[in-house]
Amino acid sequence: MSFDVSSVRRAASVAAAGCTAVAAVALAGTPAHAQVRPASCTVVDIGQPGKIYVAGAYAGEVEQQYDNCHDVRSHFQWSSAFRSANPSAYVSLDADYGSGTAGSGGGYAYQAQDEYSSWAYIYTNGANTWRADAIVDGSACGTGDAYGDYHDYATGAEFGSPTNASC
Q1: pTM exceeding the 0.90 threshold for the entire prediction
Q2: What is the DSSP string of 7-57?
């Protein structure tokens, strides 16, 4: 069996061009802002939650979540009773790193039991220390900020106390 070198080169060029075209089409279909997360990023709850009360009723609590891919977000879980009685209540979320915030989000009580901010990289602006932050706007009133306690990702230490909010 003999091979013509120019035929082999031509076949290799065609195959390479085909692979490049497939890759270009695949990348073109992916938005530049899409967060591609490895399946191995395990999410865990961090620290003590801050609780929120609206007009004397327990509305829910905010806590920090961390994935082992170095991202953090805020998680708010509505109280089932409050959610049923106040479907138009809205929670605003972000992750606080001391000198600023990142990873905003939120939602109405009728939408879901759990609301999340977007993920933020834990070393944003050189930050190592984070806490979860939430504000609830209910029909009766709006709360101030509730915070979970701080977590320092450089040392693994938790410090401070959670801050509850009410109106």
Answers
A1: no
A2: HHHHHHHHHHHHHHHHHHHHHHTS-TT-----TT--EEEEEEEEEEEETTE
